[in-house]
Amino acid sequence: MEIEAPLYGEGELPRYERHILLREIGGQGQARLKRARVLVVGAGGLGAPVLLYLAAAGVGRITVVDDDSVSLSNLQRQVIHSQQRLGMAKVESARIALAGINPYVTVVPVEARLDRTRAADLIAGQTLVIDATDNLPTRHLLNAACTAAGVPLLSGAISQWEGQLTLYDPANGAPCLACLFPVLPPDELQVTCTSAGVMGALPGILGAMMAAEAIKEIAGAGQSLRGRLLLHDALWGESRQIAIHRSPGCPVCGHCRKDPT
User: Which helix (H) or strand (E) segment is 213 a member of?
Assistant: First the structure.
C-alpha cells in the first residue's frame, strides 16, 4: 500500500483509514482524492450532502458556487445549513460546515450566479464538476462549459419524490446533457422544487449517491455512470438504470473526438 505521507497534514491520515482499507481505493485512491479539485455548483438540497461527504472523504480543494442565502424553508432538506445561519450566504454557511468536518480541506466559496465567462474560469483545472443546481438554463450552461473544457460533469436532479443522476463526459464517449435534452421546455413547463415541492430526505438520498459516484470517479474505483442514467423513485422505493448514448448531431458535443459508446 503506497501512501504519500507529505501529501497530508500532521495527524490527518488516520481519518481516512476506512477508505484506505478498501481494496478499490487504498492509499493511491486516497491520494487522488487529496489532490483532486472539485467544483460544486449549488449549495442547496443536492449540494448539501455532496459537499459534506466530499469534505469528509478528504477531497483536497472544493469550490462551491451559489448566489442564494439560507432561508427557513431550506432547512427541511438542506442539511448543511442551520437555524443559526439564516440569512447567511449559502456558500459561507457551507464553508463553516465543511471546516467543522475536515479542516484539512480547502474550501473556496464563490457567492455568484453562474454565467458563461465565470463558468469557463471556474471549470479550468478542475478534476470533476458537480451539477447540484435547480434550473435547466444553468444546467445547460454548465454542460456546454464542461464539454468545451473536457471535464466530466456529474449531474443530479430531483423533484417531489423522484431523482436522477448520471456522468456526462463526451470526451470519453458518454453523452452530454444536450444529447438527452436538446431543447429547453417553456418556463411554465419547467418543474422545480419551489413550484412542485420535494420530500425532505430525497436530496439526501440522491446527493449521497452523487458523492459516491464522485469518490469512485476520482479514486478510479468500480464502474461509473458514464452512459447510464440512474432513476430513483423514493415513494415506491425503486431504482432503475437506462442506457443513454451520444447524439451524433448534438450541437454541444458533436465535435468531440471519441465516438458514442
Answer: helix 202-219
Sign of the alpha-carbon torsion through 31, 93, 44, 206: positive
Q: How many C-beta atoms surround the C-beta of residue 118 within 10 A? A: 15
Active site amino acids: 193
Domain 36-159+199-224 class, CATH top level? alpha beta
Using an 8 Å Cβ cutoff, are 128 and 152 in contact? Answer: yes
- Is the whole model's pTM more than 0.85, yes or no? yes
pLDDT at site 21: 97
The mean pLDDT of 202-229, rounded to a whole number, is 97
Strands 61-65 and 37-41: parallel
Local structure of residue 89 (DSSP, 8 states) = B
Instruction: Specify whether the backbone of 213 is left (phi greater than 0), alpha (psi in -120 to 50) or beta.
Output: alpha
Question: What does 115-171 look like in DSSP terms, one character per residue?
Answer: -HHHHHHHHTT-SEEEE--S-HHHHHHHHHHHHHHT--EEEEEEEBTEEEEEEE-GG
pLDDT at 6: 78
